User: Which sequence fits this backbone?
Protein backbone atom coordinates (compact mmCIF):
# COMPACT_ATOMS: atom_id res chain seq x y z
CA UNK A 1 0.00 0.00 0.00
CA UNK A 2 1.34 3.39 -1.02
CA UNK A 3 1.35 6.25 1.51
CA UNK A 4 0.35 9.66 0.15
CA UNK A 5 0.32 13.06 1.86
CA UNK A 6 -2.14 15.52 0.34
CA UNK A 7 -2.14 19.15 1.42
CA UNK A 8 -4.97 21.63 1.05
CA UNK A 9 -7.65 19.17 2.15
CA UNK A 10 -9.79 21.83 3.81
CA UNK A 11 -11.85 21.90 0.60
CA UNK A 12 -11.76 21.73 -3.19
CA UNK A 13 -8.85 20.30 -5.14
CA UNK A 14 -7.07 18.84 -2.10
CA UNK A 15 -10.17 16.81 -1.20
CA UNK A 16 -10.53 15.56 -4.77
CA UNK A 17 -6.87 14.50 -4.96
CA UNK A 18 -7.22 12.69 -1.61
CA UNK A 19 -10.31 10.86 -2.89
CA UNK A 20 -8.53 9.78 -6.07
CA UNK A 21 -5.61 8.42 -4.05
CA UNK A 22 -7.94 6.55 -1.70
CA UNK A 23 -9.82 5.02 -4.62
CA UNK A 24 -6.59 3.65 -6.07
CA UNK A 25 -5.83 2.03 -2.70
CA UNK A 26 -3.40 4.47 -1.06
CA UNK A 27 -3.19 5.23 2.63
CA UNK A 28 -3.75 9.00 2.73
CA UNK A 29 -2.73 11.69 5.18
CA UNK A 30 -5.00 14.64 4.45
CA UNK A 31 -3.47 17.89 5.70
CA UNK A 32 -5.85 20.71 6.60
CA UNK A 33 -4.87 24.18 7.76
CA UNK A 34 -8.02 24.76 9.78
CA UNK A 35 -9.87 21.87 11.36
CA UNK A 36 -13.17 23.80 11.34
CA UNK A 37 -13.19 24.03 7.55
CA UNK A 38 -12.48 20.33 6.99
CA UNK A 39 -16.10 19.13 6.80
CA UNK A 40 -15.80 17.82 3.25
CA UNK A 41 -12.79 15.59 3.97
CA UNK A 42 -14.43 14.36 7.19
CA UNK A 43 -17.34 13.09 5.09
CA UNK A 44 -14.84 11.23 2.88
CA UNK A 45 -13.33 9.61 6.00
CA UNK A 46 -16.65 7.86 6.63
CA UNK A 47 -16.06 5.83 3.46
CA UNK A 48 -12.34 5.23 4.18
CA UNK A 49 -11.98 5.04 7.98
CA UNK A 50 -8.93 2.77 7.96
CA UNK A 51 -6.90 4.43 5.20
CA UNK A 52 -7.60 8.16 5.66
CA UNK A 53 -5.98 10.15 8.44
CA UNK A 54 -6.85 13.84 8.74
CA UNK A 55 -4.31 16.15 10.33
CA UNK A 56 -4.44 19.88 11.04
CA UNK A 57 -1.06 21.45 10.33
CA UNK A 58 0.47 24.77 9.39
CA UNK A 59 2.90 23.87 6.62
CA UNK A 60 4.51 27.30 6.82
CA UNK A 61 5.83 26.03 10.17
CA UNK A 62 9.19 24.34 9.68
CA UNK A 63 8.54 22.11 12.70
CA UNK A 64 5.21 20.82 11.34
CA UNK A 65 6.65 20.26 7.86
CA UNK A 66 9.67 18.35 9.15
CA UNK A 67 7.53 16.11 11.36
CA UNK A 68 5.15 15.24 8.53
CA UNK A 69 7.94 14.44 6.07
CA UNK A 70 9.70 12.22 8.60
CA UNK A 71 6.47 10.37 9.37
CA UNK A 72 5.70 9.87 5.69
CA UNK A 73 9.12 8.32 5.16
CA UNK A 74 8.68 5.92 8.08
CA UNK A 75 5.20 4.87 6.97
CA UNK A 76 6.16 4.52 3.32
CA UNK A 77 8.91 2.08 4.25
CA UNK A 78 6.49 0.09 6.41
CA UNK A 79 8.75 0.16 9.44
CA UNK A 80 7.69 -1.45 12.69
CA UNK A 81 5.80 0.89 14.95
CA UNK A 82 4.29 2.87 12.10
CA UNK A 83 0.89 2.96 13.82
CA UNK A 84 2.59 4.50 16.86
CA UNK A 85 4.04 7.17 14.56
CA UNK A 86 0.55 8.06 13.35
CA UNK A 87 -0.71 8.39 16.92
CA UNK A 88 2.28 10.54 17.86
CA UNK A 89 1.71 12.88 14.92
CA UNK A 90 -1.96 13.25 15.78
CA UNK A 91 -1.18 14.24 19.36
CA UNK A 92 1.76 16.49 18.45
CA UNK A 93 0.11 18.63 15.82
CA UNK A 94 -2.32 21.12 17.32
CA UNK A 95 -5.77 21.42 15.83
CA UNK A 96 -5.98 24.83 14.17
CA UNK A 97 -9.34 26.36 14.82
CA UNK A 98 -9.08 29.84 13.35
Assistant:
Amino acid sequence: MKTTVVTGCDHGLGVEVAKACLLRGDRVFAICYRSRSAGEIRRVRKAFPKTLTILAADLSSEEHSRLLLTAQGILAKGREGSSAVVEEIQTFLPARRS
